[in-house]
Amino acid sequence: MSAIPTATALGKQPIGRHPVSPVRLETEYDATLSRWLWLVKWLLVIPHYVVLAFLWVGFLLVTVVAFFAVLITGRYPRALFDYNVGVLRWTWRVEYYAYASLGTDRYPPFALRDVADYPAHLDIAYPEHLSRGLVLVKGWLLVLPQLLIAVLLSGGYRFNAGLAGLLAFYAGVSLLFTGRYPRGMYDLNIGLHRWVARVMAYGLLLTDVYPPYRLDQGEREPLG
After folding, report:
1. Does 220 fall in a domain?
2. Which domain, by its residues, includes 181?
3. pTM of the model
4. Among 18, 68, 102, 221, which residue is least crowded by beta carbons within 10 Å?
5. How confident is the model at residue 18 (pLDDT cuts 50, 70, 90)?
6. Helices (H), ranges, the chain
7. Is 215 domain-assigned?
């Protein structure tokens, strides 16, 4: 996966039909998934869910600290930012393997960092500066219209419910009977998660770039 540009660099890029987002969610389609493995993934991912429960407690605490840091200094401390992005990245890999997408049979690594050869990636460009004023309202007021959409798409600040979860279930049934994950269903599923990831990044104070009302389907982010 190519390196993720900084927010400053993104701001200098020419605006095309699809402006580059600071949130990058990308995957690799696998046409050779197991017919039956998805039936037991709920059991296989329990160790991840146990670890993530603790990581998300840390995420919430870090977000509170970051809120005051941005309010006072206009900057999100880099170490705190990297931790929170790491938690989101880890969560996405687990849900991509499990019941948010069923997109791979490769067991997700226990890591906050990006794993280059794993077929699911999530990155957010580090913002050199964040608005002190926006931090007071974007996480509960400005994000609200998008959050309502995210609830329909994936259950809110989650990856494994809503329409995306329903598509994953149908994909599992298709795998069971045909051995194939319908490509159109896969592309739509990833597009829904991409939308939700942008909403999460904004609502959780990781960016000031308001998420677009746009469904970008498929494995790769649009580049313009």
Report:
1. no
2. 35-112+121-203
3. 0.90
4. 68
5. low
6. 7-12, 41-44, 46-73, 78-97, 144-154, 162-178, 183-203
7. no
